[in-house]
Amino acid sequence: MSSSPESKGLVPFTVESLELIKQHVSKKHHEGDEEEDLQPNPDLEDGKELPSIYGSLPRGMVSEPLEDVDPHYYVKKNTFMVLNKKRTIFRFNASSIFCTLSPLSTIRGTTIKVFVHPYPFLLVVLTDCMFMSMNILPKWVPAIENTLLGIYTFEILVKIIARGIWAGSFSFIVDPWNWLDFNVTLFEIITRYSSLNFTFDLKTVRALRILKIIPLNQGLKSLLGVLTHCLKKLFGAIVLTLFFLSIFSLIGMGLFMGNLKHKCLRWPEESENETLHNRTGNPFYTRESENFYYLEGKLDALLCGNATDAGQCPEGYMCVKAGINPDRGFTNFDNFGWALFALFRLMTQDYPEELYHQILYASGKVYMVFFVVISFWFAFYLVSLFVGILAMAYEEEKQKAAGKTKKSEPQYQQTLRELQEGHEATETKQTQIEMKKRSPASMNTSLDVLEEATLSHKEEPKSRKKCPLCWYRFAKTFLIWNCSPCWLKLKEFAYRIVADPFTDLFLLICIILNIYFLAFEHYPMSKETSSLLTIGNLVFIGIFTAEMIFKIIAMHPFGYFQVGWNIFDSVIVFHGLAELYLANISGLSLFRTFRMLRIFKLGKYWPTFETLMLTLGNSLVALKDLILLLIIFTFFSAVFGMKLLGPNYEMHVCSIDKDCQLPRWHMYDLFHSSMNVFRILCGEWIETLWDCMEVAGKFWCISFYMMVILIGNLLLLYLFLALVSSFSSYKDATTEENNESKNIHLAMARIKKGINCVLHKMLCRKQSVPQATADHVNDVFVKENISDHTLSELSNTQDFLKDKDKSSGTEKNTTENESQSLIPSPSVSETVPIASEESDIENLDNKEIRSKSGDGDSKEKIKQSSSSECSTVDIALSEEEMIYESEKQNHHKNGYGRRSSSAQISRASKRGKIWQNIRKTCCKIVENGWFKCFIGLVTLLCTGALAFEDIYIDQRKTIKILLEYADMIFTYIFILEMILKWMAYGFKAYFSNGWYKLDFMVVIVFCLSLIGQTREELKPLSSIKFLRGLRVLSQFEMMKVVVRGLIKTTLPALNVFLVCLMIWLVFSIMGVHLFAGTFYECIDPTSGERFPVSEVMNKSQCESLVFNESMPWENAGLNFDNVGNGFLSLLQVATFNGWITIMNSATDSAGVNMQPMFEYNLYMYYYFVNFIIFGLFLPLSMLISVFITNFNKHKIKIRGSNIFITVKQKKQYRELKRLMYEDSQRPLPRPGNKFQGLIFDLVTSHVFNMMAMVLICLQAVTIMIQSDEQSPQMENAIYWMNTVFVVLYTIECILKLISFHCYYFTIIWNIFDFMVVIFSMTGLFLPMTIGPSFVPSLLVQLILLCRIIHILRLGKGPKVFHSLMFPLMLSLPALLNIGLFIFLVMFIYAIFGMYNFAYVKKEAGINDVSNFETFGSSLLCLFQVTIFAGWDGMLSAIFNSKWSDCDPDKINPGTQVRGDCGNPSVGIFYFVSYILISWLVIVHMYIVVVMEFLSIASKKKARSLSEDDFRKFFQVWKRFDPEKTQYIDSSKLSDFAAALDPPLFMAKPNKSQLIAMDLPMAVGDRIHCLDVLLAFTKRVMGKDTKMDKLLSEIELGYMLANPFKITYEPITTTLKRKQEAVSATIIQRAYKSYRLRQNDKNIPDIHIVDVDREVQATKDGVSFDKAKENVAIQSHI
User: What average pLDDT does this structure show over 1408-1418?
Assistant: First the structure.
C-alpha cells in the first residue's frame, strides 16, 4: 500500500489504510493542512465510471472497499471508494463519527454491497410510479403499497448504515435527496399506522417519490446542479422582472381599476318598477344577470365604457357599473394581486387578445399603447434577457467542460505513468490478498491490459464490438453470392444499371412523383382519381421493389445491408408489400400512414437533409439527460396535479359545466392531466386555470400552475438553447458527397451537354469545345456543387457568387482607374458617368467590405479617375456592371471600338455636347440633397395618404377629391424623377440597381391605380395602391439596411427551410389520411350546437331531419380534407391559435360520414403532440441556429458591427456606449454660503438619496394596498398620504433649488423631478376646482409613481439592473430600424386589409374593436397577428363566403360597396404571408438583443481592455485626484484599486498585490496616474508579445492627451519601500534583542534594572515623539 497522496492503482482498503487515514487526520489536526493545492479529478467524481486506464476490474474487488484513487478525496476528505460491476464510483467516509461503523465492519460492508446496486431500487420506484398513475386502484394494491413502504424503509436503513448519519461530506444527512426520501417515508408511516386522517395528502406527497429517479442517474443529478447554477445567474433578471411586473401592475390599477365591471344593462321603462336594493341608484332596477346584453356565443356580458372611443351599448341599454368581472371574476385590475396576475398573463402572452378586447371595450382604443409597451417590454425584452443569460450560462458550462478535459489530460498521463511504474508491486500485493481468499486467478491485472485500455482511451471511447467467427462464415456462405459465371454476368449487368447516373435521376423523379401522388389525396375524391392513385401506388411499389432487387443482385445481400439508406429502402418496400397483402383487412387504415416514409427517400439525394438528420440524431443523443429530465418533470407534474387537484374536478364539476360532465381539459386521470401539463408548457394555461380555481380554490391551483410554468419553461428554454448551439456548431463527419447525389449532378451535366450539342447542330454551328474539355468541365461542375458539411453553410443559394466575387474583384483591380463607368449613348459615341450612389441588392457583401476598408483612399482614386464633375465619390459598381465593363474591354481589344477619352469628347459634335450637358444636369439634380429630401417627403405623403381611404371616404367628399388630385401629383412627380434618373444613369445602370427596379414597379402601380379610377370596370386596379408603401424601402437607408440584413441571414437558410417544409408535408399528408372527411357534423340551427349521437349518428340521419333543410351536414372551418387545408391547420397549431378547436374536432372524429362523439378518438392528441415536438420545436431550432450563424458570419465581415445599423448609426452606437459607461452628471460646485453649503451637503449625501428611494417605494406601497370599492375612510387616508408625499417631494425640490441655484436645471433628472412635483400639485388641487368626478382618483399617485424610474438610474439603483438594461440600450439603433421596417410592413398590410376585408361580417375575431374598417382598427388587428394572437378568429370571419354565412347583396350605408362576405383565398394569403414576414423580423429582433448580451459577456470574460475600461479608470481617478495633479498618495492606492470596475478591479485585501507591482513613487510617497494605468493593464493582459506594443501605445496616447505632464524623478518604488520597512523591522528586532542580552549581563541589582527601565521608557518616548514629528513633516510635504 502506498502512503503517498499521489494517484495509484486499485488497492483494497485494509486496516493499514484505515490507520494511515487516522494518521493523516491527526497530523492535519496538529500541523494544519499541507495539501491545500490538491484539486479533485473531474474524471473521478462520485457517480462517474472509473476510467479504463486503471485496468479491468477483478471480481474480487467488485462491491468491496478500495483505497480512493483520487488524492484529493483520499487525503483531504478521508474517504474510500467502492465500485460496482459497471465500474461506477461510490465514495464513503472512512472516519467513524456519530455512530458510524468502521469501513471494515461486516454489517457496513453488507449494506454497501446493497447500496452500490441501485437498479433494484429503481425498479421499485418505477413500479410505484405505475401504481401512482392509476386513478382507480384494485383491491390488492394496498398490500403492494405496504410492501413498497417496507422496501423504502429498508433502503433508508441501508443508506444510514452505509453512509453514516453524520460522518463527513458523503454522509446520509448531507445529501438533500436523502432528506426527501426520509420525510416522505416518515409521513407515509405516520399516516398509515396512526389515527390521523391524511389520506388525501398522502397521495399527493407520495408523488414526490417520482423525483427519486433523478439521484439514481448521475447525469440527471449533475444536470440539476447546472440548472441550479443557471437559476443563480437568473436572479438579477428575476428581480428585474418582478420589479417591472409590479410597476406595470400599479399603472394598470390606476388606469383600469373597476372598468371591467361596466356592462350594458337594459334600462326599464317607467311603467316597470322593482323596489329591490341595487347599486345602480336607479329606482326602476331590474335583475342584473338577466338583463345584461350578451353577444352571440359569449358567456360574459358585453363590456362598455364612457369614453368616446370605448364600446357603446345598443339602443335600449345603458352602460353601468354592475355585476362581477369577466372570466368568472378572475380578470380585473381591482387590486394589486389581480393586476399582477393579469400582467403575468400578458407577459406570457396567453390568450392576450381577449384581455385586449375587454380593456379596449371598457376604457377606449387609446389604451392599446399600454398593451404595445407591455408586449415589447415583457414578451420581447425580458424574454430576450432570460434567453441571453441562459445562453451565457450554457456557453460557460461548455467551456468549463472543455477546460476540465484539457486539465485532466496531463493528470491522465501522469496517472498512467505511475500505474506502469508501480504495477509489479501492486500485482504482487493483490496476489497475496487473493491467495488468502483462495481466488488468486481473478485478480491478475497485466500490463498489456493497461496498454489496451490506454489505446482505447486515446482512440475510441466505445469501440465497435467484433462479430463472432461463425457470423462471418454464415455471411460468406449465404450472403455473398458468387455462384457461377452466368450469375456474375447478371451481377455485372445489374451493377451497370444501378450505378448509371440516369438510374438515380429516374428514381429521383419517381420519388418526387410519389410525393405528388401522396399529396394529391383529398376528400371528397372521385372514383377515377381514387383508382389513379391506387394504380400509381402499385407502380411506385413495383419500381422501388425492382430497385431493391437490382441492388441486392449487384451488391450481394451482405454489401446491400451495410448501407443505411438501403436498409431504409428495404423497410419501405416490405411495408408496401405488406400493405398490399393486408389491404382488405378492416381496422388497418392506420397502416397506410407509414407511406409517408417514402418522402424521406428524398434525403438520399439531398445532402442538406441527410446532414440535418444526422445532426439532429447526434444532438438528441448528446442531450439525452436533459430530455429525460424534461420527461420526468412532465410525468411528475401530471401525477402530482392528478393527486392534488383531480378529486376536486369530480366533486365540483357542476360548477364549471351545466351538464355536470367533466370538461375536455381536466386532471382527474393521468392522460388528461398529462395533456393539461403539455398545454401549460405550450403556453396555454389561463383558461384551464379558471376551471381549476372554480373547483379546487385559488391557492393550490395558482401554486401548481406557477410551478409548472416556471420550471417547465426553464427546462424548455435550456433545451432549445442546447439544440440551437449543437446545430450551429456541429460538423458532419463525412467529407464527401454520397454517390447518389453525385450521379444526379453528373446526369444533369450530361443532359445539359446533350441539349447544347443538339442546339449547336440545329443552329449549324460547330461545337468548339473538345470532348475532353467538356468532360473536365462536367467534373468541375460536379465538384463545385458539392455542398459543405457545416449546418451554418448548408444550402447557401449564393455560394455560386463567391467565385464570381473573386473574379470580379480581380477585374476590379485591373480596371481600378475605370471604376466610374461610362455607358455609350445609342446615337453617339460620347459617354456620361453613371452615378450609382445607392448600393445594389445583388452585391451586398462586396460593397460593405469596400465601404469599410479605406474610404479616404478609394474616394481620392475615384475622384482622380472621374471624367465628370457630376460623379459621386462613394460610387460602387455592381457585378453586372463590372461584367459589362470587362466585356467592353474585350471588344475594344479586338478592334471593335475604343473607349471614349476626354480628348474624343472634346472633338465630338455639338449635338453630343448638348446631350452630355443635359445628362450632367440631370445627374446633378438627382444627386442633390434637397432633391432627395423632397422625394423622401413626397414618398411619405403619398404613403400616408392611403390611411384616409377607409369605409368613410365616400362620406368625406372633400378629402376624397383632395386625395384624387394628390394621387395625380404624386404620380407625375415620381414619373419625372424616374425620367431624370434614366437620363442621368442610363437604362442599364438604372435597371441593374435593385432599389431602382422597386421604384419603377411602384411607378407602374401609380399609373395602374390612376387608370383604374377612370373606368368602373377597371376599378379593381386601384386596389393595388397599397404597394406604394414599398417605395419607402428605397428612400431611407434605415430600411435598406434591414432588408439587406434579412436577405443575408435568410437566403442561406432557404434549403433548411425546405427541409422543415418537407417535415410539415409529412404531417399534413398524415393528417389527410387520419382525418379527411371526419370533421363534418350535424348542427342544430336553433341552438348552434351539435346534435348528440343518440339523436343523429351519421350523415343520412342528419339529412333526414325535416327542420334542418338549409345545411344539415357542416364541415369544420379548418380541416384536413386536403394537403392545403392540412398546412393551414398545422400553421394554426404551430402558432397556438385555434389549435384547441382543431384538436377537439380530431379527438371527436368517429369516421367519414359519422356524427362526431365526445372524445371518441381520444388518443389522436398524440398526433398533435408529435407535430409540436418534431414539426415545430426541432425545425424551429434548426432555422434559428442558421439565422444566428449567418448573423455572426456577416457581423465578423463588417468587423463586429451590427448588420442592421447604418454607418451614421454606428457612430451613434459608439457614442451611446460611451454615455452609458460614464457618469453624465458633472460635479456641481459647492456654494460658498454656510447655510447653502449645509443644504448642499445634505442633498448630495448618500443617506439623503437612500431616504428618497425609500420614500418612492413607500409611495408605491400606498397604491398596492388600494382596491376597487374601498371604504371612504380608506380613501381619506390615501388622500392625506398623497398630500404628505407631495409635500415631501416639494421640500426636496426646494432644498435642491436653494443649494444648486441655476445648476439645478442643468441635470435632466432634476427637471424630471420638478415636473413631477408641478403635475402632482396640480392633480392634488384640481379636484377642488372642477370636481372630483372629472379627475381619476389615482392620477396623483401615478404621477408620483413616475419617480420610481430613479431605481434604474446609473449609480442610484442596483448595479445589476444597469448591467441588464445595458444590452437593450446598445441594441436600440438596430431595434429602431427593425421596428420601422415592421411598422412599414404593418402599414402596407393594414391598407391591403382595408381594401379587401373592410365590409366583412362582424363575427368570431372581427368585432367593433378589431376590424378592417379604418386604418387604426386594421393596425390593432395586425398587432394581434404580430404576436400570434387571435388571427384564427379573423380568418374564420373572412371564411364566410357562402349564402348561409353572409349576404353578398347587403347594402352598406354611406358607400357603393355591397355585401359582407369574405374572400377565403385572399384571406389565407394575407395572414400566412404576414405571419411568415413578421415571424422572420421578430426572430431577428430577438437575435440582435441576445447577441448583444452575449458579446458584452464575452468581452467581460476576455482578458482584454477596451476604450470603455480606460474611460472608467479615469472616471475613478478623478474622484481620488479632484485637483487634477495626476498623482495620488500611496496610502489611497488600495482604495482606488477596489473602486475600479472589472477587469481592472482588485478586491481587498490587495496591498500585497499592489506592492508586488513595483510601482515608482515620487517625493511624498505619491504615485503617478500613468504608472498605475500601465501596471494594471499589464496585470490584466498578462505576458504577451503584443503587450509591449500596447503599453507603448497607451503611454503615447496619454502623453498626447496630457502634453503638460509634470516630469519627475522617482525616488523609490512600492516594492523597495516595502523591503526597506521589512529591513528596518528586522534591524529593530535584532537591536532590541541585543540590548536585552546586554542588560541581562550588566544588571547588578533590581534597583539598577528599574532605573534602566525608566531610562529606556524615556528614550522610547523621545523616539516616538521624533517619529511622529517626522511623519507630520512628510505628510505636509
Answer: 91
